Amino acid sequence: MPYAHITGWGMSVPSKVLTNDDISKMVDTNDEWIRERTGIRERRIADERQSSASLGAEAAIAALKVADLLPTDIDLIICATSTPEHIFPATACIIQDKIGATKAGAFDLSAACSGFIYGLTMGSQAIRAGANKNVLVIGTETLSRFIDWKDRNTCILFGDGAGAFVLQASEQAGGAYGAVMHSDGSGSDLLTIPAGGSRTPTSELTLRTGMHFIHMDGKEVFRFATRVMAGATIEAVEKSGWKLEDLSLIVPHQANQRIIDAAARSLKLPMDKFMVNLDRYGNTSTASIPIATVEAVQQGKLRPGDKVVFVGFGAGLTWGALAAEWTGPKQATRRVVKAEWFPWFAPIRSVLRRFGRLIEGIIFGRKS
Ligand code: UT7
């Protein structure tokens, strides 16, 4: 059975920074309260040209460069997102087109902030089953578009950004090991965008009452998160046949410093075993774990051979964890063609395909 190695990682965040002081000019809050209650100092906000697909495509290309692969080598794209470009088509398909991953199947995965864990689990299992060889897992968000900037309960927490991993099949032991995914829909009302779906389609009333924004019972989500983080970590470690002491690093979903502190206390592990960068990005939902991983690698906190657990929780309610042995980057080959060139040529291919469909329509007629 092939192993699923993590051979590429990349991230993309908007350059615009929104500080706590900036938010205190919009709602009744202050830097001290936000830092003490969440650990967040600032977050990134997408500009009008950026979207979940554009950030996701940039993160994907960065991950492909590390893995020394081209977009055309990818056979599956899983895009975990809570803020898709549309209800359909999938944001994964828009990213597929943007990066020119012409041989890839592509779909979105909706598990809120646990989405990246769910995506990694699905992607690595597709490789373990022999169905796919090179899988791109992306977590990408433009949460700022779904925030009520008058609601201090939510607007202080979230930020925009994207991260991506490349998973590759290998006969060598390593990569993804034990994983768990859990859900409890009885808590589906605790964190939700109530309108815009089939249950409550967008209407003048839903717009007037702000039901197209994120609504959250912060206290309840907090209690749930502190309950499940440690348990899911232990499950993934035990499924891998490891012990907690074997872990070099835990990369948790970056939601609130106090939630991570509580997990560390429950697991009786020191805080230096936890990667934390939420102070600079806030909660970027599905993107938080891959963004934190990229920075952990950059800071030398995650090295080849290290045992690591990725653990998250989110709306749904959902939670899960995946244990992996960190592979590190592959030996680079001397490629004539480079992954970063693809986003320049892919739009030309896209336009030609649209033009081809137009000509086909004219020749064969638009009526059946
Ligand atoms: O990916 C999952 C995403 N969601 C989460 O992870 C959310 C988890 N929950 C949390 O992180 C926390 O519950 C929050 C940060 C949202 C809130 O922190 P808290 O410590 O649970 O605050 P609270 O809601 O209990 O409010 C405490 C006080 C209240 O005042 P009173 O009633 O005690 O006078 C609030 O009105 O703080 C007040 N408050 C604020 N004050 C200044 C609530 N939000 C703010 C604010 N600035 N932004």
Descriptive notes:
The protein has a single domain (3-325), classed as Peroxisomal Thiolase, Chain A, domain 1, CATH 3.40.47. Helices cover 36% and strands 21% of the residues. It has twelve helices and 13 strands. It has a five-stranded mixed sheet, sandwiched between helices. A four-stranded mixed sheet has the order 8-13-12-11, sandwiched between helices. Strands 2-3 form a two-stranded antiparallel sheet. The chain is globular. 49% of the residues are buried. The mean pLDDT is 96.
Layout of helices and strands, plus pairs?
Layout: E1 3-12, E2 17-19, H1 20-24, H2 31-38, E3 42-44, H3 52-67, E4 76-80, H4 91-99, E5 105-109, H5 115-128, E6 134-141, H6 152-155, E7 161-170, E8 175-183, E9 191-192, H7 204-208, E10 215-216, H8 218-239, E11 249-252, H9 257-267, H10 278-281, H11 288-298, E12 307-314, E13 318-325, H12 342-364
Parallel strand pairs: 4-5, 4-6, 11-12
Antiparallel strand pairs: 1-7, 2-3, 6-7, 8-13, 9-10, 12-13
Helix pairs in contact: 3-4, 8-9
The protein binds oxa(dethia)-CoA.
Oxa(dethia)-CoA (UT7) binds at residues 29, 33, 37-38, 113, 152-153, 156, 191, 216, 218-219, 221-222, 225, 255-256, 283, 314.
Précis, in short:
This protein has 368 residues and is an alpha/beta fold.
The geometry reads as globular
The CATH class, by name, is Alpha Beta
Estimate the mean pLDDT confidence: 96
Number of helices: 12
Secondary structural class = alpha/beta
Quickly give the CATH architecture.
3-Layer(aba) Sandwich
Number of strands: 13
The amount of beta strand, in percent, is: 15-25%
Helix percentage: 25-40%
Strand order of the largest sheet: 1-7-6-4-5
